[in-house]
Amino acid sequence: MKTYSFPYDYKSVDVSIDERFVQGVLVSNAAAYKAEKSPAELVEDALDHPINSPSLEELVAGKRNMVIITSDHTRPMPSKVTLPILLRRIRAVNPTIDITILIATGFHRPMSHEEMVNRFGEDLVKTENIINHDSEDAANMVEIGTLPSGGKCVINRLAVETELLISEGLINPHFFAGFSGGRKSVLPGVASKVTVLANHCAEFIESEHSRTGKIDENPIHKDMLYAARTANLQFILNVVIDSKKEIIKAVAGDCVDAHKAGYEFIRSLSSVKAMPADIVITSNGGYPSDQNLYQSVKGMTAGEASCKDGGVIIIAASCKEGHGGEALYEAIKNMESPQQILNDIHGVPRNETKPYQWKIQILARILNHFKVIVVTEDCDHQVICDMHMTPASTLEEALGIARGIMGEDASITIIPNGSTVIVE
């Protein structure tokens, strides 16, 4: 027997399995990567050597105001390290510049005061001007162009009208944008609802190019890149983290070239070969990524990529906030079948995308081929049942249920953190 651990909320949950049944363990090498410098030194070094860009100090000099876009509560961005360094270096050359920190909530809820303190630190929250983006606040949006998809490119007025727009972010594999970070801080980060809906349309989500680790032909990425360039995102600081959520790599500079340097680094560490099995056990990486079922669909896609058709995906995810989206909950709860949902969404025009349609579409795609068991102590099990998934309180219980479906000798693939691997 061997014990396997999976991130869950702020802790981990374990299960012991006879190794005879384990096909393999798919894990990103970023989890155990040893950086030669401290997190702060890595950030300073990246800022000292910007990629295809003037330095941050050069860009800041002479400006009256600027906006720094930062990640929201759904991303484990180590802003307690990065933001103080950015602010210190900015004010060293321009002490009087007016700085707004704009939280890239995208289509998510706003960050609470407690979450801000947890993310940024109490002193920074007290002293800095921090604003939650609201994708539905039409009065504070500006239309700046037309996306390659044909949708309107409408962005937060603060980001558009500032003299200098920069961002900080986290680079991770992303289940339909290829990778997070870079251009994604603008779209969906600080984009209008209408722009997010156009970008997350059914046609693009269906595309074989809109998958984890894919960038070049990804239509969702192309829209995002257009938005970032048109909004004049002049500089980024992006980081890669390990399993302890500590920085192991930092890149800075041009929003395309610096981002590419970062995602090629994570690609080199996180690409793994699929090991098809009857049962896949995974997680969504613990807090903050497993706050709700909406976010935890990401981890399920890693299971999808290595599970035999008709198999079982077990995901350990706290989901202490429940489903995370009423539209997602109602659509899955009331569906006749996953295929019916996919049929209904297929062909919905780009400009008629409904809120959460993309997550409904991806979850229905998964449920159309696999049974899903959600391991949680924190989410109402009835919510999971309502959404045509099976709840379990422990991984051991979940594995028993899965073996009841697939047989006692079922093969098993372990993916400790499904949000960090690129399964090929």
TrEMBL record:
<dbReference type="InterPro" id="IPR048068">
    <property type="entry name" value="LarA-like"/>
</dbReference>
<dbReference type="InterPro" id="IPR018657">
    <property type="entry name" value="LarA-like_N"/>
</dbReference>
<protein>
    <submittedName>
        <fullName>Uncharacterized protein</fullName>
    </submittedName>
</protein>
<feature type="domain" description="Lactate racemase C-terminal">
    <location>
        <begin position="272"/>
        <end position="423"/>
    </location>
</feature>
<dbReference type="InterPro" id="IPR048520">
    <property type="entry name" value="LarA_C"/>
</dbReference>
<dbReference type="InterPro" id="IPR047926">
    <property type="entry name" value="Ni_dep_LarA"/>
</dbReference>
<dbReference type="InterPro" id="IPR043166">
    <property type="entry name" value="LarA-like_C"/>
</dbReference>
<dbReference type="GO" id="GO:0050043">
    <property type="term" value="F:lactate racemase activity"/>
</dbReference>
<feature type="domain" description="LarA-like N-terminal">
    <location>
        <begin position="8"/>
        <end position="213"/>
    </location>
</feature>
<dbReference type="Pfam" id="PF21113">
    <property type="entry name" value="LarA_C"/>
</dbReference>
<dbReference type="Pfam" id="PF09861">
    <property type="entry name" value="Lar_N"/>
</dbReference>
